[in-house]
Amino acid sequence: MSIDGMGTPEIHQNASKATPPSEGPEAIDRQDPDGEIAGRARAYRNWGRWGDDDVLGTLNFIDDGKRREAAQLVRSGRTVSLSLPFDMDGPQKGWRRRTNPVHTMLDTGTDAQMGHQGFPHGLGGADDVIAMPLQCSTQWDGLGHIFDHGTAWNGRPAGDVVTSDGDLVTGIEHTAASFVSRGVLLDVGRHLAPEAGRLPDAFAITPEHLDDTAQAQGIDVTRGDIIVVRTGQLARAKAEGWGEYAGGPAPGLSLTCAGWIHRTEVAAVATDTWGFEVRPNEFDVPAFQPLHQVSIPNIGLTIGEMWDADELAELCAEQSRWEFMLVAPSLPITGAVGTPVNPLAIL
Amino acid sequence: MSIDGMGTPEIHQNASKATPPSEGPEAIDRQDPDGEIAGRARAYRNWGRWGDDDVLGTLNFIDDGKRREAAQLVRSGRTVSLSLPFDMDGPQKGWRRRTNPVHTMLDTGTDAQMGHQGFPHGLGGADDVIAMPLQCSTQWDGLGHIFDHGTAWNGRPAGDVVTSDGDLVTGIEHTAASFVSRGVLLDVGRHLAPEAGRLPDAFAITPEHLDDTAQAQGIDVTRGDIIVVRTGQLARAKAEGWGEYAGGPAPGLSLTCAGWIHRTEVAAVATDTWGFEVRPNEFDVPAFQPLHQVSIPNIGLTIGEMWDADELAELCAEQSRWEFMLVAPSLPITGAVGTPVNPLAIL
Amino acid sequence: MSIDGMGTPEIHQNASKATPPSEGPEAIDRQDPDGEIAGRARAYRNWGRWGDDDVLGTLNFIDDGKRREAAQLVRSGRTVSLSLPFDMDGPQKGWRRRTNPVHTMLDTGTDAQMGHQGFPHGLGGADDVIAMPLQCSTQWDGLGHIFDHGTAWNGRPAGDVVTSDGDLVTGIEHTAASFVSRGVLLDVGRHLAPEAGRLPDAFAITPEHLDDTAQAQGIDVTRGDIIVVRTGQLARAKAEGWGEYAGGPAPGLSLTCAGWIHRTEVAAVATDTWGFEVRPNEFDVPAFQPLHQVSIPNIGLTIGEMWDADELAELCAEQSRWEFMLVAPSLPITGAVGTPVNPLAIL
Amino acid sequence: MSIDGMGTPEIHQNASKATPPSEGPEAIDRQDPDGEIAGRARAYRNWGRWGDDDVLGTLNFIDDGKRREAAQLVRSGRTVSLSLPFDMDGPQKGWRRRTNPVHTMLDTGTDAQMGHQGFPHGLGGADDVIAMPLQCSTQWDGLGHIFDHGTAWNGRPAGDVVTSDGDLVTGIEHTAASFVSRGVLLDVGRHLAPEAGRLPDAFAITPEHLDDTAQAQGIDVTRGDIIVVRTGQLARAKAEGWGEYAGGPAPGLSLTCAGWIHRTEVAAVATDTWGFEVRPNEFDVPAFQPLHQVSIPNIGLTIGEMWDADELAELCAEQSRWEFMLVAPSLPITGAVGTPVNPLAIL
User: Fold this and answer.
1) H or E segment to which residue D111 belongs
2) CATH number assigned to the domain comprising residue C162
């Protein structure tokens, strides 16, 4: 199964239609986002599964045993960062006040060298400041990031959870010790498009694509895994410029993956794209990020976006080994609904 | 050797005088910071050790083998965050424009619930922004943070390294994959003051204190380790309020530890204090952070500050085991001289 | 009438009781903030007075004739700024995430002088950035700043006016050309306390105090004026340190001034205090800024805070002339509920 | 003299060559920016003119008499703001870390209406924060903004003036009471291109153009005036989108205007463009903002950029009157090298 040479998204979308998802609703009615979302929300909702007070959602699938298993995957010790650099050359263009990170200096080496700092005994220093949206670059979406009809994770009213004081209930600080698990790379871009190494924009990755990739890679997805889906879009952006990377057309997960996510009991899923799911979304009427709407407030899934999996993909291919220890700590900003992250894959 | 009940810093300083450091210059001339710093800078300078182009300093001591060894330390999988929460309740009071983190929302759940967002099919969202000094809370000091007489790490002119465009040479982004190693907790507070569990302000921790603690804990410090020195000051601040935690009197490393740091070939050292080294510094004339001046630009040491090791200390004491896998990824902000960090100890 | 030597706020509060306000409700029931506020809100509400679409409130009292009159007050041309400097030495201490302004440089003269900028033909430059709450220093409170039981100016639901996207209706940008008028200084501090030149904390300025001061100064308050009430608190803060200036005890307007504000048809009122009205507020049960609650959403009043009227007061006293042209332009930040301002008095 | 229908910048540049500037060096050698700049810097340098300690430069031309004269120009009282709105829809695209203003809310009306704020007696509030470059929209360039070969205004070494602590000498706070004067609009766009109402990109406005416009408008430029030069570029940007407004091709002042600026003894000059001077600059070799280099550090001129003079131009044309009272207060940010400004023209 290869899509190399596929000229247009239309082709794949037909293909996608031809291979109906194996979960829940069998096909997407492109006129009915409300129905398609509501059906999956009902089918895959995890509310109450970890108690009324839960603040972690599917991160609960990671337990001490899982973390121990993750550490045992380390063979060479080789470590790869999956983070983009955080700077003004990032993908943001101002949509919804999202800028690239603005990093400024409070003190500099030029000042120190010219003797402007006033410290004793030849000491000099440099300090700095950052101003940035928490979702501007490589990130985790927290459970307070998305609501479904005014309802947040675990069935709470959105307005009781996230006010202008931040996320009062499921703030990212609760995940401070959560992001250590077995990581699995599903390099769908390489599997489906071995020549190009990347999927075209608007390509919807279905559960079958995920399973096929896993099978081809000879790996099982298991409870508590953190899945990294590589589409190859970021590699193109790095080579050709950001273009419309932030919010524009992109390959990504199909809404039909909601069932796969629910069934596999993975702890989190990250992609190398801006928006996790396929863009434009799979509807002929106005729609926006329907898989987020099912996954975050209903399944309780934490989502990673803008993860750079290119170097990791090279290593995994070389070693024909697609599992590793993944440590991707949130920055515990009290009340945050997202966090920048530098995910480390330790092989 | 216990300092419990020690009423005043003076007492301990005499004690400190009475037990001269085992490294380099045998005692500190409290009238001569220039000489004390210059002697240690010369003695322990690592310039050129990893080539003229080096940007990592002692982080070079961590290699794949070390990371593999670190992973093998994981037994239970139990994971502890050593990070403070990042919020306005932090220790900063405005010194040198260092504020606590200001976290604001771009979109909220109240807006979503009241229908003000305009997304289709019942989608709602929350987004957020942070403005903060990179050194405002739990952090790594990068190699561009401190200069010695206008000279940065590896002998480079400070003004060629850190301009208002940031650290052009040793920016924290180079450490993106560096912070995975064996972690060792030296709970000096508990060892020297078993009843109080914490050292008094102005207590200078000498190499002998470090070695005694390691010996009492039954652990060896080895090349490439990331050392976490717990003084107990942060526990007090959490219990009693920040007070002068940011810049005020504190227990911390003595300048005489420079030789210990150099000899042990540790990769990095972190403390639970604002400033790593003892405050006030060990001079009777104006002085400011002399151990920084020796360690960062000369030894090439990366320093951690404001690490919360209290929960970790409890666990280590329970298990009588003071080593663990430590993963403490920098946030790869291009050109940064420091980084907030959420260090994870995996036991 | 003088309060010089008044030792305690208690004394003045008795005095305040002894001189009941001449407007509306004759005295304040210190157990009933709800009633006291509601009565005044009903009595002085200007909703609909300038049409259903109004976004300016009492600024409508300033018309071209008033501005012409203001210009005609200019005699010497001497101009005085009523602004504090905007920097980290300001009064904020972090309450509700209000910090002092953090000003950082994007480029510096040291970098330019050392040749680090890369511009041709010897050009060098410096650029800068600010991060600050709009209410951190000398400021105008916009009409979206305060709500009364969920209702904003002109009777609009607060949630329809100010979302996390800002003030969608009465944003400060609508006032871009508004703040030119006759200014009148009422130097209550000097009038009531001629020796100290300032009122004690918790001193409640009543309408009678305002009228007495105007009479003593030989000036009439007229429709459309911008009134600057000087208590002297800021002079003390400048001399003795900010202390609890931001939110702590302060002299200021009594709730009973609501009627005076309504009757005089002034366009705006500013004080040299953090909070405009007397602090603690005039109730024995929990209360917070009741005059704001009556004035902003009900009267439609724009309020100035932290205006430094000390130099102006000296000039006015020298010239025995308390009126001037006042130009105090908002910074038209779209959707802002407040604005920093540098008010200029042109005499 | 009209340029309507002028197809290309080339044409006007020939024309510009054909009408050599009446000041100083007679024509520009397009191969020699160093020489062209140096000659004008020497010829027009005002160093020492107002003493060695001067921090105001040509703003010294505004005295009390000038301000009085300005006030006397007010006839109708009609007031016009020359400020753009400050928001994310501004012209910035990230060049040198210049973003558009990011305005976020600390508290909102939705939160207040939903009862999330916890204030007593029905009080609700909204607060906000701004993060923005000081040069991101309508602004004044301060005297510390530009250097000539490492030298700042009045001959000071740039590194002694602007460090990472800001402008220690000529910070914008010194201008807090400065910007009140007679304003003169020179509507060069309307005069030279009466049909289009705007000049083409790359059109260099010469001293002759300025004088012709003044003469056609029947107005004299006098000492201490604040001159607003309207090219019409901003009107196009508002109609057609920002495009390359920030840094791209634009009409603007020719380098040859340096002599005009010096001779007329104007206090300040502002334009409706991003960069004040013609872009690309008038050289065939790499060059960047040569008129800034002559004007700011040598002449001591304060420069206004991105001023919106379109509404003002309409009024002036209607009344055939091109002078007015101009009040354009800086925001006195300590150490700033620029300031956002809301300039008010009072007619």
Assistant:
1) helix D109-113
2) 3.50.30.50
